[in-house]
């Protein structure tokens, strides 16, 4: 217990033998003990209470000279002191809570920075590894092609099917690695846009030529519905081509003995928000469809139906997540509607003109 301030004979509390007795009485009162020490006659000891707990005392001597008005005034002042003490305590509590929050925010910020650095390092590693893997893989594919030609020329026809398998497997692996490379570039924010003006018809023809053999291999029929008045668009042609190929190859992969309809239009049926500044690509299939509770998850990387589907349908589960991120970067959008067992419709809407300023 500390004496904060005193007047009269308590100006120097060290010189006063009475002081220890007063302190003892105050301590007993705080601890709720019955005090055996007696204070001098005509003294008043008023507790300063916060939340009913005495924090301190005001000790007055020669109280017989105080009038009632003086006593009332003293009580008001004591009340004010207690309330000031209370506020001070609240201030200290608040200050320490603020310090704790600041510390926690600093720790969270550090964790965020570390996670970001780790994620960037992972993306850079993936980008480098994918690049290193692609070079020798391209050599394997190229040389197996040459050996295949030589085998035909030299009459070793029986090894041609095996060489074809090497090529198919190599191309498949190259596709997966390219997807991982794209994904890691997107995550590392290293993806660049290369807009150019091109004819929509040419792009559609190119995509259809590539996809037709895959469609036919699953005994499907491809129906292309194209509006002839569509001319050109200014966009990243390569990325748009990859998006359409991903969606069409999915439609072919998950449909057997069915129909795939590929619609290219500046106007889309059953849509409320049609804009003339956009072009719409719609891929409708009559395949296995997707359960409604899975529709959102299919755009997450490495997501496929389930293990049995993964075994049945090859792929890494990257095509849609890359297509969606490409779409976002290109200021477009991709959406899906599907009925399990009946088929799916994927719609890509893309601005006809990408303005360089709007690119990331
Ligand atoms: N047209 C579709 N019909 C039915 N299911 C589909 C269709 N398109 C996508 N899916 C479901 O969404 C999942 C994710 O598709 P995504 O294209 O990302 O991966 P993938 O085709 O399995 O592999 P990858 O594209 O990497 O070769 C698929 O595995 C499949 O379960
Ligand atoms: Mg796919």
Task: Describe it.
This protein has 3 domains: 8-98, no CATH class; 113-187, Helix Hairpins (Orthogonal Bundle); 196-358, Heat Shock Protein 90, CATH 3.30.565. The protein is built from 7 helices and 9 strands. It has helices at 18-31, 68-154, 160-187, 200-217, 237-253, 307-312, 319-329, and strands spanning 44-50, 53-60, 196-199, 221-226, 232-235, 259-265, 278-285, 333-339, 343-351. Strand 8 (333-339) and strand 9 form a beta hairpin. The longest helix is centred in the N-terminal third of the chain and has 87 residues, at 68-154. The model has no long low-confidence stretch (mean pLDDT 85). Bound molecules: adenosine-5'-triphosphate and magnesium ion. Adenosine-5'-triphosphate (ATP) binds next to helix 5 and helix 7.
Strand elements, count: 9
Any idea of the CATH topology of the largest domain? Answer: Heat Shock Protein 90
Structural class: alpha+beta
The backbone outline, from C-alpha atoms, is elongated
**Treating each run of at least 4 consecutive H or I residues as one helix, how many helices?**
7
Could you tell me which ligands this complex binds, including any ions or cofactors? adenosine-5'-triphosphate, magnesium ion
CATH superfamily of the largest domain: Histidine kinase-like ATPase, C-terminal domain
Based on the structure given, which CATH architecture of the largest domain is correct?
2-Layer Sandwich
Helix content: 40-55%
Arithmetic mean of pLDDT = 85
Low-confidence stretches: none
Residues in β-strands, percent: 15-25%
Report Rg.
40 Å
Order of helices and strands: HEEHHEHEEHEEHHEE
Supply the number of structural domains. 3
In which order are the strands of the major sheet placed? 4-6-7-9-8
| Quaternary status | single chain
């Amino acid at each position: 217990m500390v004496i904060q301030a005193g007047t009269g004979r308590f100006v120097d509390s060290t010189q006063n033998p009475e002081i220890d007795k007063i302190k003892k009485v105050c301590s007993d009162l705080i601890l709720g003990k019955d005090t055996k020490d007696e204070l001098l006659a005509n003294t008043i000891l008023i507790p300063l209470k916060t939340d009913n707990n005495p924090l301190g005392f005001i000790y007055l001597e020669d109280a017989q000279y105080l009038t009632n008005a003086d006593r009332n005034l003293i009580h008001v002042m004591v009340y004010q002191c207690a309330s000031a003490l209370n506020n001070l305590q609240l201030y200290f509590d608040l200050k320490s809570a603020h310090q704790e929050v600041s510390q926690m925010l600093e720790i969270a910020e550090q964790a965020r920075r570390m996670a970001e650095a780790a994620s960037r390092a992972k993306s850079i590693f993936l980008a480098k590894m994918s690049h290193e893997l692609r070079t020798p893989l391209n050599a394997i594919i190229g040389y197996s092609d040459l050996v295949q030609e030589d085998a035909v020329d030299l009459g070793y026809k029986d090894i041609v099917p095996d060489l074809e398998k090497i090529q198919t497997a190599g191309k498949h692996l190259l596709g997966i690695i390219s997807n991982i490379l794209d994904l890691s570039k997107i995550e590392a924010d290293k993806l660049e846009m290369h807009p150019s003006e091109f004819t929509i018809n040419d792009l559609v023809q190119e995509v259809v030529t590539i996809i037709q053999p895959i469609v036919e291999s699953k005994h499907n029929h491809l129906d292309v519905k194209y509006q002839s008045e569509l001319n050109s668009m200014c966009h990243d042609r390569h990325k748009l081509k990859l998006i359409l190929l991903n969606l069409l190859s999915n439609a072919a992969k998950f449909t057997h003995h069915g129909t795939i309809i590929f619609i290219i239009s500046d106007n889309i049926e059953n849509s409320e928000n049609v804009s003339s500044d956009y072009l719409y690509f719609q891929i409708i299939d009559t395949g296995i469809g997707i359960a409604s509770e899975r529709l959102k998850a299919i755009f997450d990387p490495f997501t496929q139906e389930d293990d049995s589907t993964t075994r049945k349908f090859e792929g890494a589960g990257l095509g849609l997540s890359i297509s969606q991120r490409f779409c976002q970067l290109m200021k477009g959008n991709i959406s899906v509607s599907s009925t399990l067992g009946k088929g799916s419709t994927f719609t890509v809407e893309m601005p006809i003109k990408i303005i360089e300023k709007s690119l990331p």
